[in-house]
Amino acid sequence: MYNPQEIAIYIHWPFCKSKCPYCDFYKEINPKVNQDEIITEYLKYLEYYHQLTADRTVKSIFFGGGTPSLIEPRLIEKIISFIEKKWKLKDDIEISLEANPNSNRLNMFSELKNAGINRLSLGVQSLTETNLRFLGRTHTAEQAKKCLQEVVKIFDNHSADLIYALPEQNLSEWEKELAEISDFGLKHISLYQLTIEENTVFARKNIKPLNEDEAANLYTFTCSFLHEKAYEQYEISNFAKKGFQSGHNLTYWEGGDYIGIGKSAHGRLFLHGNHIACEYPLQHTKLTAEERAEELIIMGLRLNKGINKSVFSQICGLNFTEFVNKTKFNFLKENHFLTETDTNVYATASGRLVLNTLIENLCQR
Ligand SMILES: C[S@@+](CC[C@H](N)C(=O)[O-])C[C@H]1O[C@@H](n2cnc3c(N)ncnc32)[C@H](O)[C@@H]1O
Ligand code: SF4
User: Fold this and answer.
1) Looking at beta carbons, which pairs linking 242-250 to residues 24 or more positions away fall under 8 Å?
2) What is the model's pLDDT at position 365?
3) Where along the chain do its domains lie?
4) Which fold would CATH assign to domain 6-249?
């Protein structure tokens, strides 16, 4: 639930062991990187952001990547205890880390837990060998499954990422994989359709994604399959057991404030009446109320519950129904792509299939 007093902190670790051919996230391969030096720099910028937000309560910390499971646990602990010393922490603070099975080593997960991580998100991507090879992953399906078993044993809160809608993937192959991942007892699952991003190896190889209709079929099937397994969809690609939605990611989708530390990290802060977009480390740009409103729509409509209209105006100071393109808004409601209740506006199941078009229409000035 949105709370203007709270902030989330994102720590970006841009290093990976190898580059996956589909991935356009910023990353570097540098096994000899001086981790102590980088973390010292991170603490310096955390100190800076603390001065701007000292009166806030930290609701979550997220170590994302790249591959943050390559950070030495003692340095993760150093960051967490620095944050703990500086800010007030929420009682049930969520501290997540993304791990890649290819970085696993003996006792890694228990060391991460001892360092203060209380939610582990594992980048499995696929449970079949052929798909993993296609995706250029450097771990096997067996290694991924072993990691999943360890993660579920060691942590109380966990998640896994899978990529589907691979070229030529059919429903029965995907159903098998879905059934397998949902049997591990994970509290949360993120399922992403493969996108072919510009400037990736996949784009250069001219790899074509699965056709739109088949991908939509897999998507609809995924939502009802996971619903049967008591995983509720709460965001376009995210499914959770009751009480286990990602609190950190909800901050982005609900328009809350967050600090971003590390190369290619960014933040959003409401400071002294201004909406500030922060590019790490210190580039700050003022956003207009209209720019912030567009962001709230782009992010908020990803959620099944959609946008809360009074939170929307609390954050950006504009009235939702006055801000959006009224003709398009009415058209989208009449054609059952959007639903408006007294409090919220959300995309219907068919609206979610064409979410980008829907957002473009709403924000047309
Ligand atoms: C920043 S990555 C970090 C995960 C971790 N480095 C790993 O690979 O295990 C976050 C997630 O984005 C998803 N992802 C990245 N590129 C994608 C693409 N082109 N299409 C679909 N999903 C993608 C993957 O599921 C990945 O786990
Ligand atoms: S998917 Fe993960 S491991 Fe692969 S290149 Fe991207 S960030 Fe690195």
Assistant:
1) 244/157, 244/187, 244/188, 245/188, 246/94, 246/96, 246/119, 246/159, 246/188, 247/8, 247/59, 247/60, 247/94, 248/8, 248/10, 248/59, 248/60, 248/61, 248/62, 248/94, 248/96, 249/62, 250/303
2) 79
3) 6-249, 306-365
4) TIM Barrel (3.20.20)
